[in-house]
């Protein structure tokens, strides 16, 4: 059995490994394998190409996951080691990666970030429609009840493992953490997550819950870091990496993110005296 070293993971992964039972493989891709436990919680074993995420366990092995593994491969945890088919992943000693961006710093610089976002070339998803605009305005105005009602209509809307409506919601939720103070953002994100996660796929629900907890994947962290540094060239490169995720997932998420910022800008313009 090949012994594979885990390079990094989030605290969520540590909890999953030490408390999970009745494990099975949910999905297999070339560079990732999604596992599900009895509580319907996901752990993603991923290559370094994908990198850190709220529920990712990054491993050192560079081979294709889809060659030796199948959805029927057995999964178990024994003495701190994760067994997937013939793979044995040594999880102890992995670097702990924090999935929560520095929201307080981002909120403090929300206006420079808004200015910077307007200078980036980010095409909107074809999924952008009046429902998305309404969601963005309700989030920008911290209208939680209306946000929940509209979010419920978007949840699970579209095709794929992470439907477009969910990706829009994820991006919009991340934007809420920046434009609003922490207490308000926490309430908005939690309320949206609680009503939408049960309406969609297991993988998409995991991403929505992560956003609801103020967590994001490494590409969003890199994007936010460039926004804090106010480096437009680096910010464009970071946003392009997000746009490249999936067939439309990255574009849909950035659409939701930008829609909230656009709504917030208009809200500020109309609420400020001329």
Describe this structure in words.
The protein has 274 residues and is an alpha/beta fold. The longest helix has 23 residues, at 249-271. Strands 1, 2, 3, 4, 5, 6, 7, 8 and 9 form a nine-stranded mixed sheet that branches. Helix 4 packs antiparallel against helix 5 (144-154) and helix 9 packs antiparallel against helix 10. The protein is 49% helix and 15% strand.
Could you list some keywords that capture this structure?
274 residues, nine-stranded mixed beta sheet, 2 domains, 9 strands
Biggest sheet descriptor: 9 strands, mixed
**Portion of residues within helices:** 40-55%
Range of strand content: 5-15%
Overall geometry: globular
Termini Cα gap: 70 Å
Number of helices: 11
Oligomer class? single chain
Poorly predicted runs: none
Q: How many β strands by DSSP?
A: 9
Q: What is the number of independent domains?
A: 2
- Mean pLDDT, rounded to whole units? 94
* Rg: 19 Å
**Order of H and E elements:** EHEEEEEEEEHHHHHHHHHH
Classify the secondary structure makeup into a structural class: alpha/beta
Quick overview:
By secondary structure, the chain is of the alpha/beta class. Helices cover 49% and strands 15% of the residues. It has 11 helices and 9 strands.
Provide the fold topology.
Layout: E1 3-9, H1 11-19, E2 24-28, E3 32-36, E4 42-46, E5 56-59, E6 75-78, E7 81-84, E8 87-90, E9 95-96, H2 103-108, H3 110-118, H4 130-140, H5 144-154, H6 164-179, H7 182-196, H8 202-212, H9 218-229, H10 232-243, H11 249-271
Helix pairs in contact: 4-5, 4-6, 4-11, 5-7, 6-7, 6-8, 6-11, 7-8, 9-10, 10-11
